[in-house]
Amino acid sequence: ITRLAMLSGGEKALGAIAFLFALFLAKPCPFYLLDEVEAALDDANIGRFVELLRRYADRAQFVVITHQKRTMEAADVLYGVTMGGDGVSEVVSRRLPREDAVAAAL
Questions:
Q1: Whole-angstrom Cα distance, residue 64 to residue 77?
Q2: In the predicted model, is pLDDT for residue 21 greater than 60?
Q3: Is 51 exposed, middle or buried (0-12, 13-18, 19+ CB in 10 A)?
Q4: What is the chain's alpha carbon radius of gyration, rounded to the nearest angstrom?
Q5: pLDDT single digits (tens) 30-39
Q6: Quick one: which of 76, 40, 39 has its CA closest to 58?
Q7: What ranges do the domains of the chain cover?
Q8: What is the pLDDT of the chain when averaged over all its residues?
Q9: 42 with 14: CB under 8 angstroms?
Q10: pTM for this structure?
Q11: Contact predicate 61/33, CB 8 Å
Q12: Closest to 66 in 3D by CA, of 91, 52, 51, 49
């Protein structure tokens, strides 16, 4: 492909994610914030994105803003912000059990 404009939204997102993780490897930081970077990806590529997060989770902390259920399922902790009828925002959090912890408990 000779022009970026010819790429689909998912292909552009996948290229951007690959570039970001290449930067993460070249110049590591302890903390990364990713804001809906996987929004345009299909299910197969969301799975690949989640695997990248898991692979690098021992090297850095990731805060990922997402609406994708599969990405949320990979999280250790979920935070949500909701607005009540009185117009006041409320933060809710949920620590998710890890698969290995669940398996060990059985």
A1: 11
A2: yes
A3: exposed
A4: 16
A5: 999 999 999 9
A6: 76
A7: 4-105
A8: 89
A9: no
A10: 0.80
A11: no
A12: 49
Query: Which CATH number is correct for 4-105, 3.40.50.1240, 1.10.3370.10, 3.40.50.300, 3.40.50.10490?
Result: 3.40.50.300
Q: Supply φ then ψ for residue 89, to 5 degrees.
A: -75, 145
Tens digits of per-residue pLDDT, 66-105?
Answer: 999 999 999 999 999 999 889 999 999 999 887 654 444 4
In the structure encoding, which two tokens stand for residue 1, read together? Answer: 């492909």
Strand 89-95 and strand 77-83: the pairing is: antiparallel
* String of DSSP letters for the chain: ---GGGS-HHHHHHHHHHHHHHHHHHS--SEEEEESTTTT--HHHHHHHHHHHHHHTTTSEEEEE---HHHHHT-SEEEEEEE-TTS-EEEEEEEPPPHHHHHHH-
Cα(45)–Cα(13) distance, rounded to whole angstroms?
10
